[in-house]
Recover the amino acids of this structure.
């Protein structure tokens, strides 16, 4: 089963400075692991730049201009205490969002059924008019609206299993009945949103916070009981994944205890649902994961899950 793999060299150029966890080493580790493993069925494609129109389906013109006009000529510039701009950050951010748009276009056109977008910076904390949490543009949200405005696709589900809650994605779809946003994440933890009571204006938001120390069995139980049935009942035409791998037990920024096999397992389960409701159209988008070795191993496992064939 072919999985399209979108990437671009700019993802390793975006510089966040010494000691920053969201570093180029993340992408380099993934690329090295792929070069060594040579997984079958992976078709590599170059991530294009997102257009202004694509970005402004979810972000304000003011926000897009603020990011792109503040790229420094040299050195680093802080958006906030943890979100950094450097030479080349504009290319990385534009191609991060553009990768998801291109992947959505490709799976809807039938070029493949599944895709993985391997870019940084991540996106799910970026709100309509605010960059935060390492994120500049909300890549998965831009891709969702590419499906809607570019292809007339309604009923889009976004499952976010990053260890941090995707406050930006939730904010963008808070009152959108045609988009189902679901998240498992550690709580308490940055950014402090994602309580179970946060369910959206139209009940289209599903938050399932997990306490520190949550391991494979407990997390899979939450996914099986609370996440997969909601996706199944929603019957999406496109399934997007905010694939953060920082709930791994080796990640330095959180205290959950997942392992690589959990990312294989969840990929398989989500593909099964997509085959039932959306002609198996799945686009997975890299978010967090701050132990490069654990991130690389988890991405390989997740790609294997996405390549599941139905009987």
């Amino acid at each position: 089963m072919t999985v399209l793999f979108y990437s671009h060299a700019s993802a390793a150029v975006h510089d966040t400075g010494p000691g920053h966890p969201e570093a180029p080493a993340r992408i380099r580790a993934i690329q090295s692991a792929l070069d060594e493993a040579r997984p079958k069925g992976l078709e590599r494609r170059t991530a294009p730049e997102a257009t202004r129109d694509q970005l402004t389906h979810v972000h304000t013109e003011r926000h897009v201009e603020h990011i792109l006009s503040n790229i420094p000529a040299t050195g680093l510039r802080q958006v906030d205490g943890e979100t950094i701009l450097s030479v080349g950050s504009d290319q990385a951010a534009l191609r991060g969002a553009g990768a998801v748009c291109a992947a959505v276009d490709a799976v809807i056109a039938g070029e493949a059924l599944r895709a993985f977008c391997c870019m940084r910076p991540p996106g799910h904390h970026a709100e309509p008019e605010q960059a935060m949490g390492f994120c500049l543009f909300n890549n998965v949200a831009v891709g969702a609206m590419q499906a809607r405005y570019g292809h007339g696709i309604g009923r889009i589900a976004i499952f976010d299993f990053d260890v941090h809650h995707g406050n930006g994605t939730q904010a963008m779809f808070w009152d959108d009945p045609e988009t189902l946003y679901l998240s498992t994440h550690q709580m308490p933890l940055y950014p402090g949103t994602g309580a179970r009571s946060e369910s959206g204006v139209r009940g289209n938001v599903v938050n399932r916070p997990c306490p520190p120390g949550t391991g494979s069995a407990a997390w899979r139980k939450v996914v099986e009981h609370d996440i997969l049935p909601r996706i199944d009942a929603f019957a999406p035409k496109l399934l997007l994944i905010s694939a953060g791998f920082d709930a791994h037990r080796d990640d330095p920024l959180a205290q959950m205890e997942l392992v690589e096999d959990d990312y294989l397992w969840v990929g398989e389960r989500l593909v099964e649902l997509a085959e039932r409701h959306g002609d198996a159209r799945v686009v997975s988008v890299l978010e967090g994961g701050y132990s490069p070795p654990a991130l690389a191993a988890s991405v390989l496992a997740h790609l294997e899950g996405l390549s599941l064939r139905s009987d």
Residues 89-108 form the longest helix (20 residues). Residues 3-306 form a domain with the Arginase; Chain A fold (CATH 3.40.800.20). The chain has one domain: 3-306. DSSP finds nine helices and ten strands in the chain.
